[in-house]
Amino acid sequence: MIPPGATLGILGGGQLGRMTALAAARIGYSCHVFAPEPDSPAFAVARATCAAYEDERALEAFAASVSVVTLEFENVPATTLERLSRHVPVRPNAAVLAIAQDRLAEKRFLAERNFPVSPYLEVASPEEARRAFLAIGGRGVLKTTRFGYDGRGQRVVSSPREAEEAFAALGIGPKVLEAFVDFEREISVVTARRADGAQASYPPVENRHERHILRTTLAPASIAPSLAAEAVALAEAVARALGVIGLLAVEMFVTRDGRLLINELAPRPHNSGHWTLDACPVSQFEQLVRAVCGLPLGDPTPFAAAVMDNLLGEEVRDWPRLLAEPGARVHLYGKREIKPGRKMGHVTRLLPLEGGLKR
Amino acid sequence: MIPPGATLGILGGGQLGRMTALAAARIGYSCHVFAPEPDSPAFAVARATCAAYEDERALEAFAASVSVVTLEFENVPATTLERLSRHVPVRPNAAVLAIAQDRLAEKRFLAERNFPVSPYLEVASPEEARRAFLAIGGRGVLKTTRFGYDGRGQRVVSSPREAEEAFAALGIGPKVLEAFVDFEREISVVTARRADGAQASYPPVENRHERHILRTTLAPASIAPSLAAEAVALAEAVARALGVIGLLAVEMFVTRDGRLLINELAPRPHNSGHWTLDACPVSQFEQLVRAVCGLPLGDPTPFAAAVMDNLLGEEVRDWPRLLAEPGARVHLYGKREIKPGRKMGHVTRLLPLEGGLKR
């Protein structure tokens, strides 16, 4: 167990790292954030190292200063994780990251273990993209296997020709063509797992996207209790299969015929878990700290229902009105530069949970 | 208005400064903490300057780096505040601090404006202490006028001789003898005030002390609505009279015949307001940031009742059990050294508020 008072290392300095550092401080930890971007939002609330992920000397000094390393961002180079793990536990580890970083590896990992995923085919050329489209039938989504987020690195394709064109448009490197899922809704589960196998999960939430960026999370999702239980069981089974220590966010589609299909995994705090900051006794960020430090996992039972809206780009300029709204919980990430679609903050509004405040 | 993205200066680096910095970060501010103690808990979550309050050069650099200065600790030297206020707004200002730092000045300020306080007399010698005891009649409490906290600098006296002895035992400097109040309960109100006069108050809470240190806060206090309204009105009137910008905590006695007597003022976040972190949409710490930055004051309406217990000294070693308790919200301050009675953390437990979750 890594007790309060120790220093937690965080790879990545965005809002997820910032909120992790704030949650860690709340229960007595210090944090050391390692990130390459000088204007990293997390630097303001922790000890900071601004260096490249390839900077061996900086990595060694970082490793020597912390008791455990976690991350807010799955695209940390594997070599960075390997170097750090010679000196200090890295949770989640390089093996988990290798899968979560690569859409194709992720799909294979899930499919081989019979977890439900939409049909997919690997494609290495425009010609393969055309053939894959024909094999899958109907619409598909062509995706790069690496570095995709918020809709970057993907195209919906509706004809063999579009599949060919999209392959070229998405740049070099392997791709995967996934059958387009005509889903009823998108849900996600954030689950936590400790090294000893203990697990705890927040209830499934419903996510609404706009131009591939998360717009709104409704928590808990309005789905049948049996489906909610199935989603939680699925997320926990994937976390066990992966051997995640820390958090795993599992995005799923609910198909029109009521089945669950896993869309994406993220072994870190997730935008769809931000509501937990204001509606649960222990937030996803504190839960991450607890999981990687081997503390008792916190109670994930919400005491209120919540609607979480991201503040994207210029929307953040609305902060004076939001701060004046009774009951609204405003979170701003301290980012200096506003860019279209950039996650600048979020606002959570609570609603009564059926049956009132649960203890 | 000082918008999110700006840097807030905080004088004092204890847990109150730490929690203020965490709350400021939540709504997009950066913080710069100035404190003389190298192991200040707030240093880990903000930019830090470790220097004496008399260090002119350090104060100037600090002032130049921030948009506004607030404080977590009222015993900052007046000269420090004056120096800073030449360069940057200091909220609350030196005039407020001059009163809150000095028990006698505080009593006079309140009595002159007809705010209810217990009878008191200034005493400058053992002989005056004896005479004051006789004048007040019955038991009294002899207190130093400066630097008293958590029961330090005060003695209950039950005879003229004890009054004389206590004067010597409390060291040099003026003292004040207050009539002992046989109260029914102790309550407090944390109120916020902006430069433009806007005010917002949390409901009164009940405080239970043990050896003069706050043990437990029950929120809201179980008192008649009319008495609660009177307590809030009193706190707000004192804040207006003082011209506080920021927070004012007003500790009061409820006498056995149902009157309110003001015991003490603190123009900063207050231990009896920690419950707001977990039971109100906007905590006292965020409210302080909003007040000194001129933002809309937050909604102080609790969505749950709360019991807040301090973790004093060795009690903090109980953290594994507390972290495992469902629903308990544990706060640890990251203090390395455990000392008897030292505030190491606190734990808040929520209870249903009559009528369920309020929006």
Structure summarized in a few sentences:
Two copies of one chain form a homodimer. With 359 residues, chain A is α+β, with helices and mostly antiparallel strands.
Defining traits:
homodimer, 359 residues, alpha+beta, Rossmann fold, Dna Ligase, domain 1, D-amino Acid Aminotransferase, Chain A, domain 1, 3 domains, four-stranded parallel sheet, 11 helices, 30% helix
Relative strand content of chain A? 25-35%
CATH superfamily of the largest domain in chain A: ATP-grasp fold, B domain
Largest sheet of chain A: 9 strands, antiparallel
Q: What is the fold-level CATH name, i.e. the topology of the largest domain in chain A?
A: D-amino Acid Aminotransferase, Chain A, domain 1
What's the helix and strand layout?
Two copies of one chain form a homodimer.
Chain A: E1 7-11, H1 15-26, E2 30-35, E3 47-50, H2 56-65, E4 68-71, H3 78-85, H4 94-100, H5 103-112, E5 120-123, H6 126-136, E6 140-144, E7 154-157, H7 160-169, E8 175-179, E9 183-193, E10 199-201, E11 205-210, E12 213-219, H8 225-242, E13 246-255, E14 260-266, H9 276-279, H10 284-293, E15 305-312, H11 319-324, E16 329-332, E17 343-351
Parallel strand pairs in A: 1-2, 1-4, 2-3
Antiparallel strand pairs in A: 5-8, 6-7, 6-8, 9-10, 9-11, 9-13, 11-12, 12-15, 13-14, 15-17, 16-17
